[in-house]
Specification:
Elements: H1 2-9, H2 12-20, E1 23-25, E2 64-68, E3 74-79, H3 82-93, H4 97-100, H5 103-110, H6 113-121, H7 127-147, H8 153-170, H9 174-183, H10 187-200, H11 211-235, H12 253-289, H13 296-299, H14 302-330
Helix pairs in contact: 3-7, 5-6, 5-12, 10-11, 11-14, 12-14
Length: 334
């Protein structure tokens, strides 16, 4: 078992997967058995992590793309199969901020509040369709992590197993959890404190990794949105339900205009909120810890990165669920 886990933590399976998808290290694309992996990536380092994972950078003209690993080493890659390249580039975006900041708010503003609440945790409306969508999207994101070399096979398998266990444990109790999140007087405190504690206790690595910042972003946005859900329920804020958005073929022009208006007004407010909060929070932290706001290394410190991202994105989540619907009602878009 230990040998199997060691193999799954190695870079070799990742390298094999990359080569099978037409992604080769520059200078290594012409020789060797694809199953052997690139010559300089065929072994694990002492920590069992990837030596120099491929980044998610763009492919310059000629099909060569660069990758940057945790130790700031740089590798150039040759893309020979652009179908997989663009497929996994799109899949990687499903796990990034641009997807969450557009798709989930769109669902909340135009389809159904309850659906959006559930989708923050699991695709679940209806359960069968949501489960299929979650499986497909999750598979694409996992494979994109291997394709870009940002995770080992063991990382992906471990994450999938944890997600499956949480799904089985939480789904039967979701209605109860949802009710508590909407009605309990302790919801705002719980929703802020627990994610913040988890972010500050994120596992430490020997090198900087963006995963702590990404996790803080997701938990912060979810915390702000959850507080917004609770506040909306307490004060009966305007809600968009599935009855107010019923797609047909063809869609009524007025409905499409209304949907697009809600979306663009909401996204504009969300992006403006993010920009303002980033500037304000980073400025305050810079003043507190005596560093220039453009100092990237300082922004990566625990005492800076966690509050910076958590406060920024919890405000974004709150704005998307409270401020934007109120603005929609004010503008007559509900």
């Amino acid at each position: 078992m230990a040998r199997l886990l060691g193999t799954l933590r190695c870079s070799q399976p990742v390298a094999r997967f990359q080569r099978s998808c037409g992604l080769f290290l520059a200078g290594d694309e012409g020789g060797g058995d694809p199953a052997e992996g690139p010559r300089d990536r065929g072994a694990c380092n002492g920590a069992g992590a990837l030596r120099c994972p491929a980044g998610a950078g763009r492919a310059p003209p000629g099909g060569v793309r660069s990758g940057r690993g945790p130790q700031s080493c740089t590798q150039k890659y040759i893309v020979k199969n652009y179908f997989y390249y663009y497929l996994f580039k799109f899949s990687a975006a499903l796990g990034e901020e641009i997807f969450y900041i557009t798709f989930l708010p769109f669902t909340y503003w135009n389809i159904d509040h309850s659906v959006s609440r559930r989708m923050i945790i699991v695709w679940s409306y209806p359960f069968e369709l949501g489960l299929v969508a979650a499986f497909v999207f999750s598979t694409l994101v996992c494979l994109s992590r291997l394709y870009t070399g940002m995770h080992t096979v063991l990382d992906v398998i471990g994450g999938a197993l944890i997600s499956a266990v949480l799904l089985m444990l939480l789904y039967p109790a979701w209605d109860t959890i949802d009710h508590l999140l909407l009605t309990s007087p302790f919801c705002p405190l719980f929703s802020i404190v627990v994610p913040l504690v988890l972010c500050y206790n994120y596992p430490k690595l020997d090198y900087y990794s963006p995963t702590r910042g990404d996790t803080t972003t997701i938990l912060g946005a979810a915390a702000g949105a959850t507080v917004g859900f609770w506040l909306n329920n307490q004060y009966a804020a305007p809600a968009c339900t599935s009855k107010s958005f019923q797609p047909g073929f063809p869609l009524v022009t007025s409905t499409m205009v209304l949907v697009l208006a809600r979306f663009f007004v909401g996204i504009l407010v969300v992006l403006l909120t993010r920009w303002v909060m980033k500037s304000v929070v980073l400025g305050l932290l810079g003043y507190r810890y005596k560093f220039p706001i453009h100092d990237l290394e300082a922004q990566r410190r625990l005492e800076v990165e966690v509050p910076y991202k958590f406060v920024t994105y919890s405000t974004v989540g709150f704005t998307a669920t409270v401020i934007v619907p109120l603005l929609h009602e004010l503008l007559g878009l509900m």
